[in-house]
Amino acid sequence: MGKTIGEYQEEIVEAEKQLQLLKDQFVLLQRAVVEQRPAPNASKEILDLTSENIKLQHRLNILNRAIAEESNKSPQLSNKMESLQDNLNDIFSTAITSAFPDLVDPPIVIALANKFGDYQCNSAMPIANLYKQMGKKLSPRDIANKIVEKLPSSPIIERVEIAGAGFLNIFINKSFGVNTLSTIFEKGVQPPNIDKKCRVLVDFSSPNIAKEMHVGHLRSTIIGESICRLLEFLGHDVLRINHVGDWGTQFGMLIAHLKDKFPDYLTKSPPISDLQAFYKESKARFDQDPEFKKQAYACVVKLQSFEPDYHKAWELICNVSRQEFQKIYDRLEIKITERGESFYQKRMEDIVKELNDNGYLEEDDGRKIMWGEQNVGIPLTICKSDGGFTYDTSDMAAIKQRLHEDKCDWIAYVTDAGQATHFETIFKCARRAGILKSHHRVDHVGFGVVLGEDKKKFKTRSGDTVRLIDLLDEGLKRALDKLQEKGRHEILTPEELKAAQESVAYGCIKYADLCHNRNHEYVFSFDKMLEDKGNTAVYLLYAYTRIRSIARNANYSPEKIKEISKTCQISVDHEKEWKLVKVLLRFPDVLIKITKDLCLHHLCEFIYEISSTFTEFYDSCYCVEKDSSGDIVKVNDGRMLLTEATALIMAQCFDILGLKPVSKM
Ligand code: ARG
Q1: CATH number at residue 108
Q2: Which residues, in sequence order, are CB contacts of 619 under 8 Å at separation 6+?
Q3: Which of 32, 323, 325, 348 would disulfide-bridge 397, Cβ 3.0–4.6 Å?
Q4: Does 465 have pLDDT greater than 70?
Q5: Residue 356 CA to ligand 1 centre (angstroms)
């Protein structure tokens, strides 16, 4: 009986721990050697250190090799599509540390090759540079040769070629590629292994009560949802939190107005269905009428001490907004749990006391402030001069609640880039106060502003902010026009047409947002996003439907394909077949990369590459051969498998992006 996957994994974890210990020790030793270099032959101590060093390095190499071998086995063991990049990293790291034991943490540079080979190891030049600094002359080409000599055998690599000044071109083994990809017929598309399952809180969407949800919130909603989907797919425990603005002075104003205008609000439904208008009225009174202003302030105090009637009035107001927000979430299929600023009232009182007691707060013109870094940037306002709390206070209370009560390992805040400094300061202050520890991860996932086609801030023609519901409606209308233009209404049933319309409309809005680097501003243009060429949702959804129809037209059901996969292999003899397989094998690496920078445009670029590589394959490789009367004469099973694998991976990518492909469009 062989070992179980669990046992292998435990062993690897243990070996990695030891390895880290050894590496740390080694770095210390190396530093000692380097620091004493001016008189290298002087002391016996150095000789001892060096011999110890060599012994350690030897042990380290053995461990490294063991890890590389374990991880080379794991693709077969775990029946998952493992990260090729990680595997290659391990293999080359073994070779390089054993070829150059005198280097500490040598650079392991593995990249996707664009022309020669499939991947490249570009470590030889930086290693040559390191030696140069140490006063040794070694040519990159010699270094490359030494690396190749020490390469452990691996089922992943077909061969390695040395080229030019010392590039290592890596060719992936075809059977390895086919076997790895084929795991999806049995298990479906599986996520790659991740180091650690985390509890992640994604704070996204987060509009403000009584105000209109605007395109900035739409971006946050789309990006946040997609990040949640990715992290859930990877197996993390994800909390989707809507940090709505539902607390603060404006509620005093709204409640005071409601009490005046509709004293029966506790028993009858009040006339605030148009909350915007209601907000404007109350704001006007607040600005003009000092008596009203006083009442408004009194209302806030009563609300924040949770007096029942005031609480009820506030709830009424929140509900009106909530219903509006929900309409957007339902249409875009967004799952999110509301936990607004009001949730933290008690915790804000506590955090202010805690920060004050521990001496973090400073007086500033009656306010209480906290610096992230003394006199650098802008401090947080923890308490206003009237004693009230601010946006900063609620975020300090929230970060503590999330890390300490919810026990999250990781928090991601998805807001416009304009709030970058706010979050930077929150993180610094939380670190200072010992709330945020080094094992926690926090990200501000910022994004650029949405512009209109005139490159100015996105507005309606009359200059008002665009209502999101209107925007979604326009998307629906435009999507229908597009489908009719293509004559689809004559072919599809009314239900199919409606499904296609929604898929295109919401899909194109989401995709247009996600396919841009989120850090940049982007131009909202229905014309652009509905184009059926290029990297657009419409193009990709069509491409996917076409791929799906290949099997349908050959009468190959998913069950039949699964059956075939047991006896037949994905075909990789043709150059275009192998090219497509190699693109598909990058799926795990693309996801891993996104978990690092939280930029979803990598995934969009990946699907686009899949679909264009598929087109190349399909143009030169027959899947189904028909005779002149249109009857099927031959189906190439190996190619049908490749087609199915492509469709499955594309579908998984769409799912992460929140796009819903339909079988006919
Ligand atoms: N309501 C805020 C806004 O509209 C966004 C809240 C983001 N989340 C947070 N924890 N501050 O800008």
Answers
A1: 3.30.1360.70
A2: none
A3: 348
A4: yes
A5: 25
